[in-house]
Amino acid sequence: MTNNFSETNDIGSGGYGKVYRGTLPNGHLVAVKRALQGSMQGALEFKTEIELLSRVHHKNVVGLVGFCFDQAEQMLVYEYIPSGTLKDGLSGKTGIRLDWMRRLKIALGAARGLQYLHDLVNPPIIHRDIKSNNILLDERLNAKVADFGLSKLLLQDWDQVRLDEETEDSPRSSPRDIKSNNILLDERLNAKVADFGLSKLLL
Length: 203
What we know:
Belongs to the protein kinase superfamily. By secondary structure, the protein is α+β, with helices and mostly antiparallel strands. It folds into two domains: about 5-80, Phosphorylase Kinase, domain 1 (2-Layer Sandwich); about 85-160 and about 180-200, Transferase(Phosphotransferase), domain 1, CATH 1.10.510.10. The protein has helices at about 45-55, 85-90, 100-120, 160-165, 175-190, 200; strands at about 10-15, 15-25, 30-35, 65-70, 75-80, 125, 135, 145, 150-155. Strand 2 and strand 3 (about 30-35) form a beta hairpin. The termini are far apart.
């Protein structure tokens, strides 16, 4: 699938591990997220994440294709998104011209993806790591919210969570995603990567 995790198929990395481009027997391209030994989850945690991801079906959210779990490996297999990250697009690395209308389309798509995660998934999902590296662009430059490594299921009444958010800055709250998306909105509409202490917002 990945040519034995060849470096030529290495398309990214993060705290969880490396991501490789792979090809299924039917010819479809996928992205294989392979956990580093030090970042592997316990069986229950990994099962919970698979259950979370399997509930997600939206055109503006990267979809899970499959997974691998045994004593030596933990891998998540996602649909392959060919046009790279929003960050690379804004910086010019991809060579794709993101004019104002395209940036607006991307902004609306990412917002719809977040709204779906917050309001239509049961239980709701708070991403907690929204940034330009985690917005992918498909061949038609549709935005896809990606990387749920820090996501949290809200296993309590959502209306109560909304009420709590009005009185305190809960680490489980949707305002965290909204603040991060507002920073992304500035990046997209101004065609540059913003620096507003994003790491502090996501702690």
